[in-house]
Amino acid sequence: MDLRDKRIVVTGGAGFLGRAVVSTFQSRGCANIFVPRKREYDLRDRANVQRLFQDFNPNLVVHLAATVGGIGANRSQPGTFFYENAIMGIELIEQARRAGLEKLVLVGTVCSYPKFCPVPFREDDLWKGFPEETNAAYGIAKKSLLVQAQAYRQEFGFNSIYLLPVNLYGPGDNFNLETSHVIPALIRKFLEAKEQNRDTVVVWGTGQATREFLHVEDAAEGIVLAAEKYEGGEPVNLGSGFEISLKDLVRLIARLTGFEGQIAWDSSRPDGQPRRKLDTSRAEREFGFTAKIPFDEGLKETIEWYLSSRG
Fold it and tell me: What is the mean pLDDT of residues 133-148?
């Protein structure tokens, strides 16, 4: 799919991942990109979704808009996370089909995988168990869109693809401690502790769980490559292939931020999923995607961005 002359809509295009995806499209020579804003096109409402297609008549839609947050937000608002993520996707897929859209790119979440999934996570294992409880509502809502997309491909011949990125990080991330994910939350905690001369930082969980992280620019490249080259109905993982324990992650961020105090683990708080590491071979095979940015380098860049963005 040559994207340069296509009319492209990126829902959530003003967000963390969305800005990187828009920038990647622009680097390919795409000039006709529309980013709908929630105040004008609230995607939870069918009429707004219909109006989005009428107003812009896109050839390609990349659906990134989502209601997201860390473990705390997922635990306190599971109903909101389920309803808003499910309804946005369901309405978008249906109205895209009705509008005759050429291609829809749906971006899911690693949270959809079973809690005790064999490592590395393979796309064929997606249905072999229930997701980790603290973010199950979000994960199942996003996974339901894969079912809808595959059903529409079977019944209507509707062209949509489904991608499963692992945890993202990078410049421009959300550093609000109430809603942020693990890397920006840790960066902020350690920097503030250092600046306030505190000798201890408290971290959730035991540190035994593992995670895989993908730089936001790598994720954007993977999404755009898939938009250009992938036409299959099977889901595809997007990851770095790099796994790190939360204990090692915490120590690394403490070192990179210059925090030299004590780290206290609050084991009364949940660890989340025990392990996360993706099998990324399908993405490489189907559309030539491999992550490029080394983790240490990406973390340093993220810390520098946060320090400069605070003014």
Answer: 96
